[in-house]
Structure formats: C-alpha cells, structure tokens
Amino acid sequence: MNLKAIQKICYGVYIISSKKDDKINGQIANTAFQITSDPPTLAISINKQNLTHQFIESSKVFSVSVLSKFAPMTLIGKFGFKSGRDIDKFTDTKYKMGRTGVPIVLDSTVSFLECEVLSMTDVGTHTIMIGKVVDCDVLGEGEPMTYAYYHTVKGGKEPKTAPTYIKEESIKPAPEESGKYVCNVCGYIYDPAAGDPDNGVKPGTRFDDLPDTWVCPICGAPKSEFTKE
Amino acid sequence: MNLKAIQKICYGVYIISSKKDDKINGQIANTAFQITSDPPTLAISINKQNLTHQFIESSKVFSVSVLSKFAPMTLIGKFGFKSGRDIDKFTDTKYKMGRTGVPIVLDSTVSFLECEVLSMTDVGTHTIMIGKVVDCDVLGEGEPMTYAYYHTVKGGKEPKTAPTYIKEESIKPAPEESGKYVCNVCGYIYDPAAGDPDNGVKPGTRFDDLPDTWVCPICGAPKSEFTKE
Fold first, then answer.
1. Which pTM was predicted?
2. Which of A31, A68, A95, A107 has the lowest tally of Cβ within 10 angstroms?
3. B11 touching A, CB under 8 A?
4. H or E stretch including A148?
C-alpha cells in the first residue's frame, strides 16, 4: 500500500469561518465540495479538535472563502497553523459579515459561499458538515489555489489536524542538497534557493543570513525554532 | 447569489468503479477526498441514478482511479457520458481486478485507491460513501487532471447527473466567434480553432470539413447531433 496514492487527489485551499455568540473564527481547510446543484449544497470536513468545529456546531452557519493562488503564506499560516484560542485571526484580515452573521474572509479570496448547516456526519476524527448555500459571489478574476500548488510551488505543509496529514517519518524524502532548514512547529522548509519572496527575502539567501526578525512564513515561529534538515 | 462562485472549488477527475455479482462498471466523478489519515479513509459522492451507485450499494466496495491530465476525452466520454446499462465500459479499457474483486481502471491513471465502504450518507440526489482504503498505489510520474483543466483546456462539460451541473441557460455565454458547433447530447463544443487533436483533427479544421466518421470525442454522438452554436 503506497499512501502517496492519496496525495494525487485534488483539493483547493479554503478559509472556513464561523461564529459563536459574539466571537468569530476561521481556519484553513482543503476539503470543500458541491453535493447537489438544486438547491446548491456544499460539504466541508472539519477536525473535531478545531475551534471552528465548535463554532459551527453552535451557530450552524459557516462561510467558505476560496483562496487565490497568490494568497500569501502569512495568511495561510495565520488561519492554518494558529488557533483562534490563542489569537484573534480577524485582526488585520479583510472580511465582511454575511447575512447569517458569519464572517467571510475577503483577503486573497476569488469567491465565497455562505452556508446554513443541513446535517453533520461523524467520520471519526472529523465531521462532514453539509450546508445549503444562502449567498455566494465571485470576487474578481483570480485563479484559485490548488493544494498541489500550495505544496509544490509554495512549499506548504499540513497541520497535524488535517485529514491529509501524513507523519514525516512515513515519507522517505529524496536526497536533498544541504542548506535547508525545517520549522519544528509546522514543518515548513526554508530553501535558500527559493528564499521567501513574500517577505522580502531574495532567492539565494542563506538561512544564516536571514535577519533575526525573520519568522516562519507559515506559523510565525522564530529562527531559533528551525533545525538543519 | 452568483452561482459561478461554486465553480471556483477545486476538484480532480476520477473513474470510480465497482461490481455487482459478476458484473463490473465504472463512471467519471469529480468528488473524492480524504477523510482521515489513520486509518486512511476516503469519501466519494455518487448520483443515485447511476449504475455504479447500485453496484457499490450491493458489493460495498469501490475503486478510485485518479486520471492523468493527459487522459483522452474518449476515455472521459466513455466513462462519463455513457451508461453501463447500455455498454460494457471495460471493453478496450486497461484494468486489473483488485483484492476485493473490484475492477481498477489503469488507462491514463496516475494512482488508484481500493476501498471497502464503511458508511453511506443520503444527501438528496447523491450519496456520500465513505470507504476504508485497503489497497493503493502510484502508477508512474504523471500529473493528475484537475476539473478546471478538464473545463478550460479540454473543453469538457458535465453530465446532468453531476453535482456540479448547472443548466446551460443559467450561464450567459460570452459573445463567441462563429464556427463552433455544440453536441446536443453532452454539450461538448467543437471549436475549429482547437480542432480535436486527440482524434487526429488538426486545429483550424472547419466543422463541415470533419470526416463523416468523426464522432463527439466526449459522448460518441455522430456529426448529425451537432448544431451551430
């Protein structure tokens, strides 16, 4: 059984948001898909440990923002590798309130869908939530980010609560040139050949030459959290 | 509500196969996604009208073949726009029998997953089937086809039983140059500028100049089933 077979399945990169009482939260997810066309219904799969899961269970509403392929890793890091229990993810994030009172992230968003939950199915670590689309719109002409693009072009990783997470030790990496450093928090690999252009670091910059103020573009961990690959 | 928002969600293009007694069948689907990583489980969404739905309900096993971006439209047409009630789709298709006795399509396949059904959730016109992966492998180095690629590069359409189907009249087409012909059966548009290279028709070939033996590359309908767009 070669589990890399599962990695060939295609996903997008989304921010799923919800609310509970007067609190709002959101998270990155790669699983969203249409169920029926009439009425338009959508399903998402959310880890039970996540705060957004709690919020959707409580309010029975959620929104899906389809991220552009140009979404910066800082946005993905904030919504994907940090918990709403620790930070307010909507500070410095452009969003609007939907008609159901759910927040809808607009930063780097090519389209959004606002949904009312019709049903929830327990699938072990995750819950599949099916929602009726009550509002949706396209924002601009941008191209959506695919999960494959996030992995191969942006060098992105998945958090341990993602359905697609595979323990690093179960994947044998190809022999790599040295000079790369891996983030102990989220698994992001700093590759000097690629640099970190989103944050002003040119390709060809050695890890040691990164400024001390540089942080992991995904999870925000400092340089001291990195170890040589 | 701009329903084009839903079209920004990312999908792949898969052949889902199953069996019932000594019969085998398969169909195109764009919805397959991982649910949990340990044990590896997968969900698919299948229209209740489809023969493959009947077969999975009966045998409780299915396979998913992840199609390559170079999969020919004839393969997609055979599995996506024809019914196993009318033809044997596995004639002239390369496949193998999996360990559960389910057929696994190997033509234009970059990876496959063989699953035993754990649960089924009724979602109106469709059923979400969750399966435990009992076997899987990667076949070669090919890149998977995304649904966006199928639409924009291959000019593909969806059958009426797809969750993503939207009635043509609800989408206002952009003004087009003339010379295009649309298939009345499946909606495929023959564009003379693109030709039909999969079937030896060079770009620049007018519809009238297509040989009488030419058939719709998706559904196999004859030239007489085409009308000027």
1. 0.77
2. A107
3. yes
4. helix A147-152
